[in-house]
Amino acid sequence: MPITVTMPQMGESVVEGTIETWSVREGEWIEKDQTLCEMTTDKVDAEIPAPASGVVTRLLVAEGETVDVGADLAIIDPAAEATVAPSAPARAASAEPVSPSKPAPAAAEPAAKASPLARRIAQEEGVSLEGVSGSGTAGRITKADVVDHLSSSSRAPARAAPPQAAAKAAAPAKPGSLGDLLGRMRVPRYAPQPEDRIIPFSSIRRRIAEHMIVSKIVSPHVGTLAEVDMHAIVQFRDRVKTRFREANGYSLTYLPFIVQATVRALKEIPRINSTVVDENIVERAGIHVGVAVETERGLVVPVVRNTDHYSLTGLADQIETLARRARDRKLTADDLAGGTFTISNPGREGNLYGFAVINQPQVGILRMGEIVKRPIVVQHDGEDQIAIRPMMYLALSYDHRIIDGVTGNGFLYRVARNLEEGDFEV
Amino acid sequence: MSSYDLAVIGSGPGGYVAAIRAAQLGLQVAVIEEEDRLGGVCLNWGCIPTKAILKAAEQFAAVRKGVPGLVVEGLTPDYGAVIDASRKAADRLSKGVAGLMKKNRIEVVKGRGRLVGKGQVGVTSGDGESVVEAPNVILASGSTEFILPGLDVDGERVLTSREALASKRLPASLVVIGGGAVGLEFAYSYAAYGVDVTVVELEDQLLPGFDAEAAQVLASSFARRKVKILTRTAYKAVEHSGAGVAVTVEGEKGEEILLADQILFGIGRRARVENLGLEELGVDLEKGFIAVGEDYRTSAEGVWAIGDVIGPPLLAHAASEEGVAAVEFMAGERKRGIDYGRVPACVYCQPQVATVGLTEDQARERGRDVAVGKIPFVASGKAVGTGHTEGFVKLVADARYGEILGCQIIGADATELIAEVTLAMELESTVRELGHTTHAHPTLSEIVKEAALACEGRALNF
Ligand SMILES: Cc1cc2nc3c(=O)[nH]c(=O)nc-3n(C[C@H](O)[C@H](O)[C@H](O)COP(=O)(O)OP(=O)(O)OC[C@H]3O[C@@H](n4cnc5c(N)ncnc54)[C@H](O)[C@@H]3O)c2cc1C
Q: CB–CB of A117 and B402 under 8 A?
């Protein structure tokens, strides 16, 4: 009875895998537990062993193809007779003891003497310099040697070549390191035009730019959006704002409400108030929320230390003080350091919603949209009604390395609920 | 009759260098030269004397323009002394070549050589005739000025570079026909001494084939020095007029007559292929030059050719490299020919122009995805500090691999700066290694580094 080999479940979160190389050809005999193919997933690299001895009658997936867990990969017929001699590379592979949990280390590239250009071309084209003979001074591998090698390997008929060698030549270029990738990235060059204004980066602009790039690379951002009915807060604020202003000398804005609602949610879900240190998640005990403030020179994010220690009035006070210091350029390094979460309030107009870039090394950032009156459906006395309510979108960007969808959504839901319940006092 | 392993006809930078390389490889070598002085055109009537004159002209121009702290009362050129100095330099180097021949035990046979049979070179001199026998013969007879049919080059009013290099007279005005390297070097030198110079060039830019932007910078620099430049203008005729000449040229606006004391032709060179016995031995020509393969073999067995006589690039260093390559092929020590994409070409007027490999346009024409790093000299502290802010370095690279495809430099010391890029190309360095190399500050070479960084969009000082 032929056996169908399927893509195994290789870990809880693995849903698919890519067949990198088949270690056997169709018609070839394979021993039980001998490597059938090498595969990569987004979590691990692994070799799939043959579940039984027999002839591999069919390979159902092409090299380089990505398939779901459970998909059919190959058919092995224990009763059939081999029509193809085992390929040498497969033999060699099976003779070597291979620990199943770790992928076999890639053969180290011999320190081939090669010109920088030859190395670069090999790297770009995803070929190894191993086996390329050098015609340069003292056997150095030159551009011409690599180009010859490339054209001869692409001319070689794939069928005549042993499968592994053929696979190597055809394999897509191995993605280089990030730095290398960025180095190779080309955008059309800027051609100066007579009326163009050129504004060099200020140091603060450069720091912002670098931070943004690094953040986008370090943290895979995921965005999630909630709609908040601000009815309770607007009403509350309307009730107290005159009194507040008289007592404190400045206006009560919506920001302290958002901060307080956020702090409460952070206490419930500490994963959002965390950071990544090496391969550890550190859930931080202290809650220090940064509030993004627009200034002439750019965006700064002063931090309200121990944000959870303050009442609504206390928060309003802290935010007002920091904002004033920011505008007067009086912020100190301490004012800006140590945040564990950030709230961004990029102003009113043209801001229905948007997703902010995470402020490293934090793992989440909340961005307020403008408050707009919209008709929504509310329940009144158990009946659905259309009401006009001040609505706000709240957008959360979170770091998908350590926060998954359930946690991210749960957090945002709690912030929204805290706001809608309107449980605030001054 | 004397026998050798190798006979070389011509002792220019092609011939004498080939002879030395052959001697190094253990061959018995004879060099046949008809002139009294060794070294060929390059040492005697080309590269070296022109550079001596250019240097003097440059210094004269600098003093005339003003050097901070230098007070000069009355400035009179003595052009005769300039020519004398240039002859002295040429003589000294020519003697140097004679010394090198001795040191390498190379026999110098004086006389005019000619292939007279397989492995046989007949030599005619004042002392009579002799035959040099060698299984291999290298033809390195070079080139000579191309002279239009019917033109009377009298050395007084009508000159080529050859006559100009011996002429101690400074004319009041001069028309230079040809805006190539030779024409421009003379135009610059004479203009520096206040001669009223007009350059006539057929193509639409000076230095045809060079980077157009560099040619543009050069043209405006010449214009500032009061040199008149007529591009897209054809030379038609020259007649005597008073004590000078009347030169008829035809530009886009029609014919024009230029009056001047002298006219200098720098319109190219032709190979010296006559009376060498080429036809008899079956040495083929191609467009007037000796045809050779990648290994410098001609169509006749045992006969090789190098240097100006095999055609462009008509450059001394190319001739020398070809000489070395030919001998190494002969000795079986070499597999690949010369990569002409790595042979630099330089012009030594001020600002200097140097180029190697492809220009941006040529690279694009070849379908390359090109990254260009162009840095002006003004971006360099050294250039500003020393008052040499004219010009730029333009590095042309392959956008994907960073391969250096070419470089064009115009500005002070361009001809020295190009060496670094040529080396980088030879070593197959990419723009990355060039950009990573520490360059001393302040030097003009920093501009080359910046250009390399600019190819990757990360220039630091521009
Ligand atoms: C004004 C001027 C400036 C130049 N400046 C530069 C420069 O700055 N840089 C540069 O790279 N190049 C320059 N050149 C070009 C350079 O001079 C030539 O490329 C170079 O000299 C070529 O070398 P060659 O050995 O091929 O021939 P040549 O130098 O021409 O030498 C050939 C030799 O062969 C001898 N000869 C010829 N026929 C016979 C025969 N039948 N028997 C015996 N002897 C014979 C000749 O007398 C001569 O000595 C310049 C040329 C000119 C005219």
A: yes
What is the Rg, in whole angstroms, of the alpha carbon atoms belonging to chain B? 23
DSSP states of A319-344: HHHHHHHHHTT---HHHHS--SEEEE
User: Has residue B462 been placed in a domain?
Assistant: no
Please tell me whether residues B82 and B167 are part of one structural domain: no
Interface test with B, best of A117, A137, A186 (most B CBs within 10 A): A117
Q: How far is CA A2 from its chain centroid? A: 42
| pLDDT for position A167 | 33
Each domain of chain A, given as residue ranges in start order, spans 221-421
Burial degree of B335 (CB within 10 A; 0-12, 13-18, 19+): exposed
**Residue A248 CA: distances (Å) to CA of A261, A315, A316, A426:** 22, 12, 10, 11
Chain B residues within 8 A of A186 when measuring between CB atoms: 369, 371, 399-400
Q: Are residues B263 and B274 in the same domain?
A: no
- Check the CA dihedral A128-A131-A134-A139 and report its sign: positive
CA-nearest residue to A141 within chain B is: B428
Domain carrying residue B434: 351-455
ipTM over 0.85: no
| CATH 2.60.40.10 fits domain A221-421 | no
Render pLDDT for B153-207 as a digit per residue (tens, 0 to 9).
999 999 999 999 999 999 999 999 999 999 999 999 999 999 999 999 999 999 9
Contacts of A183 in chain B (CB under 8 A): 432, 456
Q: How far does residue B436's CA lie from ligand 1's centre (Å)?
A: 39
Residue A277, helix vs strand vs coil: strand
